[in-house]
Amino acid sequence: MSALDPTRTALLVMDYQVAIADQLPDTGALLDRLTTAVSDIRSRGGRIGWVRVAFEDSDFDAIPPSSVWAPIAEPQRRARFHIDSPATAVHPALDRRPEDIDVRKTRVGAFTTTDLDHRLREHDITTLLLAGISTSGVVLSTVREAMDRDYRVTVLADACADPDPDLHAVLTRTVFPRGATVVTVGELSS
């Protein structure tokens, strides 16, 4: 992936937060691969964007019963995804810095309910590298929306994970390659 223009590239790290990452098996290896990708992109002069899902009380109140988020909007389940919960913080094993782009969302995709597009365009970003949990959630939604917004999209397959490994495989091997480039973290630095 040496053809990347690092000054116009951002690695989006999506939903790598305690409440989500710690539910997966072998989180350590996933975090190690992501740490490698973050370090690689930083060393080349690229930007890092952190996207997390977290809700304020008014956000929970606005969730309709038909929403994918409806189960966590129930009063007895709100604490885990509340904006003030440590479980919604970016995973502490990751190197988040003040100069990074940082957005909070209340829907599945990284662009919906955020100013992410505006912030990326402020930095003349045209290429997005995507890493996220889950592949069938935030990654799928963000791939589609990023393509609609005319970004060049690359998915880091081994820096994405899904509770359903078979679904992850179908998305990264069959669906995403139809409009995005799919590589591993190791291939990113080659």
From TrEMBL:
Residues 9-185 form the Isochorismatase-like domain. GO terms for molecular function: hydrolase activity. It holds the Pfam family Isochorismatase. Keywords: Hydrolase. The keyword Hydrolase applies. The keyword Cell division does not apply. This is Cysteine hydrolase. The lineage of its organism: Bacteria, Bacillati, Actinomycetota, Actinomycetes, Mycobacteriales.
